[in-house]
Amino acid sequence: MSSSGRRFVFTLHHWTDTDWEYLPRLCDANTDIEYMKVAKETGSEGDTPHLQGCVQFVRDFKQRESKVSKILMGPNKDITRPDPKNPGKHLKHHYHVRLMRGSTQKAADYCGSIAKEEGCEIFEYGHLKVVKRGERSDIHDVQEAIKKMAQEGTPFVEVEETFPKFFSEKPEWVRRLYNRYRKIRQNFFEEHEMFKWQRELVEYLNDYPPDPRKIIFIVDEEGNGGKSEILRNIEFLFPKKAVFGLAPQDVVSMSSLYPDDGADIVIMDCPRQQQYNDLAYKFLEQVKNGSLVQTKYQCQQKEFRIPHVVVLMNRRPKTGTSILFEDRYIIKEIELEPDEKERLHSQQTAALPPYLAESVTRTREILAECEEVKEAKRARYSFNEQ
């Protein structure tokens, strides 16, 4: 019994025009055929005129040789021809099909090869992926499939179930590839107009090369001015740039996370509680110098191109020559235009679900009470100091 597969070579002796004309119709109608090449070989090597071909089906379509022969014959399977050795009898009309041993590319090169004969007519359907020397085609196929599933929003558990062998052997590789291409959110700015400061920042980062020394600090002391939306939408705002976004951590962790090949833009979004002393100015300066030392896991020196560096904050950065030299700073304070403030207010006061809306008033009262308690404590402390 023949084994099954998805790549085959085949030969049809004493073919008819009907056989040849059927092949294009078969490829157009059968979605399981990924690639096919067939040559009308005249038998110049001493063989009888025949069709020499190869076929590759899609990954999930695996069949036996006998089944593939029937697929190739289609409605022509009932054609018979006289047996020259036995007058009065007829020979069956069918393809001789064998599982392919080498690569599909080699089989395709063999069909109608100039080394065999020149000028034979060739039919070819589909395209073969070019696999470079040393590159495994199975890994390439799986990689493309995972990228597509991630971009289409397929749950990760389905990726695991689709490629159990790869996930068991390379779980981190599969997870990292999936996370790189998955679509996490919709573009916020498709439904909301950008503020002026956002638009100017995005245009500068997209259109101008990085300054070799400047670190841009975007300061929003009032808060809620749209800083975090920049980082949350980097894939839409900077489609042609490599962007590394992060929150402040210790220098060792950030140096480990920083891409080995660097980035075009680095954006650090600082939580309100990590604004002043906790900000890793050393890391920012090292990135702006194009060099980091990674001491976590495998120790190494990272050398990379100098990127734009942007820090999003709620207060002014720490200054002084012991922190950064003066020429490193570019501080831009956010101030929304009147119409932008109105637009922001309308977004904040948009209709909330009943579960949330019923608690808005009481929440404001609680926050006001907390501020009163703080003021009372500050007043007592000030009185005791006097």
UniProtKB/TrEMBL annotation:
The keyword Glycoprotein does not apply. GO terms for biological process: DNA replication. It comes from the Eukaryota. Keywords: Covalent protein-DNA linkage, DNA replication, DNA-binding, Endonuclease, Hydrolase, Metal-binding, Nuclease, Nucleotide-binding, Nucleotidyltransferase, Transferase. GO terms for molecular function: DNA binding; endonuclease activity; hydrolase activity; metal ion binding; nucleotide binding; nucleotidyltransferase activity. InterPro entries: CRESS_DNA_REP (IPR049912). Residues 2-128 form the CRESS-DNA virus Rep endonuclease domain. This is Para-Rep. It comes from Seminavis robusta.
